[in-house]
Design a protein that fits this description.
The complex is a heterodimer of chains A (252) and B (250).
Chain A: H1 2-23, H2 38-48, H3 51-73, H4 81-96, H5 99-114, H6 120-145, H7 149-157, H8 162-192, H9 204-215, H10 218-250
Helix pairs in contact in A: 2-9, 3-6, 4-6, 5-6, 6-8, 8-10, 9-10
Chain B: E1 8-19, E2 22-33, E3 37-41, H1 48-55, E4 63-68, E5 71-72, H2 77-86, E6 87-90, H3 102-113, H4 118-131, H5 147-159, E7 165-169, H6 177-192, E8 196-200, H7 204-210, E9 213-218, E10 221-226, H8 228-233, H9 238-247
Parallel strand pairs in B: 3-8, 3-9, 6-7, 7-8
Antiparallel strand pairs in B: 1-2, 1-4, 4-5, 9-10
The chains are: A mainly alpha (252), B alpha/beta (250).
Chain lengths: 252, 250
C-alpha cells in the first residue's frame, strides 16, 4: 500500500512538471519532438537511441569500478604499511582528478603514452571506472571496518583463510552497510556519463547537443534530455532500494 | 611428564606483551598438560584475556615462546593455522556470525578450514548441538536465540573443529544471571569428558568444581599457581588473598 502510494505521488509530480513546462506561453515548440508528426518521431527516436550507449557505458564502468574498488580497499585494511600506502596513494590521486579532466587525458593522452588506439566508448569506461573506484574503495573500506573485531577473531579462531574469512564472514555482513552509499555512487556515475559526450560518444547528451544544432529548439530538446536521465535514474534507484529491502528481509 | 604421566600440550615460557608503553604481560610461564583444566582468574586488566588470546595468536607476543602440541607459535602462517585447528576458542561476546543460521555457523569451520564434506559437517554440527542441549535451534539465526543459547552455540561451533584444547575467555560475563548455569553445565560436562581447557572466569564455584589448576594473575604476571583446594583454602600470596576476599565476599 505504502509503496503504491509513493509511486502514485511520483508519477503525479512527473506529470504535473511536464504539464507546467509545456503550458507556459508560446515560447514552446513541442513539434520538434512531437510523436504525432513524422519529423518529430524521427527526432525523438534519435534522442532515445542514445540510451544504449549511456546504459552500456554505465554498466561496464560500474562492474569494473566495483572490482577495482574492492581490490584497492582490501590492502587499505592490511596491517603492513606498504599495502596501506598503496591504497592511500591510489585513492588520493584519483579522487583529486576531475572526471572530465581524467576523461580528456585518457582519450587524448593514453593512446600516445601506450601507443594504442582507444575508442570513445572505452575511454569513457576507463575514465569513469577509475575515477569511481577511488570513491568505492573508501566506501568498501568503511563498510568492512564497521564489522566488529569479534567477527574477525571468531573467523580466525576457526582457522579460516583470509579469502574464506572475507568471502563467508566479513563481506556478506559488510555488503548490507555498503549498499546504500554504493547506490548513491552508481547514480552519481550514471549522471557523470553525460561528460563522455565531449569526446563524441553518441550517448544521450551528445545526441541532444547534435539535435539542438540542427533544430534550434534547445528548450524542448534539453527538457526531453532531463526527463530521460530522470526516468533512467529513478529506475536505478528503485532497483537499489529493492535490493536493500531484499537483504534486510534476509537479515534476522 | 607429570606424575600421572600426562604430556604437556601447551608450554609458555617467558611470555611478554606490550601495547605501546603498557606492559600487558611480563615473564609468563605456564604449562598445561593433556586433559588438564586450568582456570585463570584475577582482577580486570591483569592480562588474563591477553594471555589466552596469545595461545591461538589473536594477539601476537613480543617476548618468550609459546609451543602448542610441539608446534612453536611464530610468524609462520602454516604454524598458526596448524595451531588454530587444534585450539578452539569461546568468546565473552559469543561472536556468532549473525548472517548465518546456527548450523551454518557450526559447519563453516569444518567445511572451509578442515575440508570436510558438507553433509558430514552437518551431521557433526547436529551431533554437537545435541551435546549442548539445543538441537531444536539448528535452523534459527543467532539473533533469535537467548544469550545462554547463543553461547552454547558458540561452544558447539568450537567443538565442531574437534579441537584438542578449548580456550574460554570469560564465557559467562556477558550473560544474564539466570543463563549462566546452562552454559556452565555444558562446560562441566566437557571437563568431565576429559577436554583440555584453559578458562578465564570469575565463576569461582565452577572453578572449584572442575579445575585441576588455579592460576591467579595480577598486573601482567602470574602471581600464584596451585591446585584448587590449596588455592581457595590457603593462598600463599597476599594479592591472591585480597582478590579472593573481594570476590567471595557475598
Amino acid at each position: 500500500m505504502m509503496v503504491w502510494l509513493r509511486r502514485k505521488y511520483l508519477w503525479l509530480s512527473l506529470g504535473a512538471m511536464t504539464l507546467v513546462l509545456s503550458g507556459c506561453g508560446q515560447n514552446w515548440g513541442w513539434y520538434v519532438v512531437s510523436p504525432s508528426t513524422e519529423s518529430g518521431r524521427i527526432n525523438l527516436k534519435f534522442l532515445i537511441n542514445g540510451l544504449g550507449y549511456t546504459i552500456a557505458l554505465s554498466l561496464c564502468a560500474i562492474v569494473i569500478s566495483v572490482v577495482i574498488g574492492l581490490m584497492i580497499a582490501l590492502p587499505g585494511l592490511a596491517k603492513g604499511a606498504a599495502p596501506r600506502a598503496m591504497n592511500r596513494v591510489y585513492v588520493e590521486c584519483f579522487r583529486a582528478i576531475p572526471i572530465l579532466v581524467l576523461l580528456l587525458w585518457v582519450y587524448y593522452g593514453l593512446p600516445v603514452v601506450l601507443d594504442i588506439g582507444i575508442t570513445t566508448f572505452w575511454a569513457g569506461v576507463v575514465a569513469l571506472a577509475i575515477s569511481d573506484s577511488a570513491f568505492e574503495a573508501e566506501i568498501f573500506r568503511g563498510g568492512i571496518q564497521s564489522i566488529s573485531k569479534g567477527q574477525v577473531e571468531a573467523a580466525d579462531s576457526i582457522g579460516l583463510s583470509y579469502y574464506d574469512k572475507m568471502r563467508y564472514v566479513i563481506l556478506p555482513q559488510a555488503i548490507r552497510r555498503i549498499l546504500p552509499p554504493l547506490g548513491n555512487q552508481l547514480v552519481y556515475m550514471m549522471k557523470m556519463s553525460s561528460l563522455v559526450s565531449v569526446i563524441g560518444l553518441s550517448e544521450l547528451t551528445r545526441r541532444a547537443n547534435e539535435l539542438v544544432v540542427t533544430e534550434y529548439r534547445p528548450l524542448e530538446i534539453y527538457t526531453i534530455l532531463v526527463l530521460e536521465y530522470l526516468i533512467l535514474i529513478l529506475i536505478v534507484s528503485a532497483g537499489v532500494r529493492w535490493l536493500e529491502n531484499k537483504m534486510r528481509a534476509d537479515e534476522r | 611428564m607429570t606424575d600421572d604421566g600426562r604430556e604437556p600440550i601447551i608450554e609458555i615460557t617467558g611470555l611478554g606483551k606490550s601495547f605501546g608503553d603498557f606492559e600487558a604481560l611480563r615473564g609468563i610461564n605456564l604449562t598445561v598438560h593433556n586433559g588438564e583444566r586450568v582456570v585463570v582468574c584475577g582482577p580486570s586488566g591483569s592480562g588474563k584475556s591477553t594471555m589466552i588470546r596469545c595461545i591461538n595468536r589473536l594477539e601476537t607476543h613480543d617476548a618468550g615462546t609459546i609451543t602448542v602440541d610441539n608446534i612453536e607459535l611464530n610468524e609462520n602462517t602454516k604454524n598458526i593455522n596448524a595451531i588454530r585447528r587444534e585450539v578452539a576458542m569461546v568468546f565473552q561476546q559469543f561472536n556468532l556470525f549473525p548472517h548465518l543460521t546456527v548450523v551454518e555457523n557450526l559447519t563453516l569451520g569444518p567445511v572451509r578450514s578442515r575440508k570436510m564434506a558438507p553433509d558430514a559437517a552437518e551431521a557433526l554440527a547436529r551431533q554437537y548441538l545435541d551435546r549442548v542441549h539445543i538441537p531444536e535451534q539448528a535452523d534459527k539465526y543467532p539473533a533469535q536465540l537467548s544469550g545462554g543459547q547463543q553461547q552454547r552455540v558458540a561452544i558447539a561451533r568450537a567443538l565442531c573443529m574437534e579441537p584438542r584444547i578449548m580456550l574460554f575467555d570469560e564465557p559467562t560475563s556477558a550473560l544474564d544471571p539466570e543463563m549462566i548455569s546452562e552454559v556452565l553445565d555444558v562446560m562441566v560436562e566437557l571437563a568431565e569428558e576429559g577436554m583440555t581447557m584453559v578458562c578465564v572466569t570469575h565463576e569461582m564455584s565452577f572453578a572449584r568444581k572442575v579445575a585441576d589448576t588455579m592460576v591467579f594473575m595480577d598486573a601482567g604476571e602470574i602471581v600464584e599457581t596451585a591446585p584448587p583446594e590449596q588455592f581457595f583454602s590457603a593462598p600463599k600470596s597476599d594479592r591472591t588473598k585480597k582478590f579472593l576476599n573481594q570476590i567471595l565476599q557475598y
